[in-house]
Amino acid sequence: MGVDFPSGMISVSTTSGDVVLLRICDLCGAAVVEAEGSDLAFHKRWHRVTGSGNWVDPATGRIHGVGSASPPGN
Length: 74
Known about the structure:
Elements: E1 9-13, E2 19-24, E3 31-33, H1 40-50, E4 55-56, E5 63-64
């Protein structure tokens, strides 16, 4: 059973009408808020520093990691 993460950017409107942009991390699937001092690049640097971004999806064989590519055929 694999996990299918959405890609790209998602926007959400708050009850007060503010629009919040969320970017999906292709390494872990987290929705990262685009805000001052916090963005997807900052989140991916955290993966690099902690070494937490390297894993293989057992259903697809896709290697998730900073700078990694999917194996051929996936």
